[in-house]
Amino acid sequence: MSQTLLALAQAGLLDSQLGQLLVVLIGMLIVMVVGRVVLKIAWRLVTIAVVVVGAALLLSTFGLL
């Protein structure tokens, strides 16, 4: 990633405001994609936890746990 930024800087693309804006937008895009993947995993973990805790509550209510 740093090599890409170095190449952009050497090409003079980061000297303009539009070039800097492009770099910031690409950075935001990367953060959003990574965040989306992490949230997808988090939703699955929370769903599994709710099912497990709900089952444990039902079993303990009926004296089976």
Written account of the structure:
This protein has one domain (2-61). 85% of the residues lie in helices and 0% in strands. It contains 2 helices and no strands. The radius of gyration is 23 Å and the shape is rod-shaped. The chain starts with a helix and ends with a helix. The mean pLDDT is 87.
Helix content: over 70%
Distance between the termini: 52 Å
The main sheet comes to: none
Element-level helix/strand string: HH
Strand content: under 5%
Provide the structure class. Answer: mainly alpha
Number of helices in the DSSP assignment = 2
The overall average pLDDT, rounded, is 87
Inertia-based shape: rod-shaped
Give Rg in angstroms: 23 Å
> How many domains, in number, for the residues?
1
* Strand count: 0
Low-pLDDT regions: none
Task: Provide a short characterization of the protein structure.
The chain has 65 residues and is mostly helical.
Give the SSE map.
Layout: H1 2-11, H2 17-61
What descriptive keywords fit this protein?
65 residues, mainly alpha, 2 helices
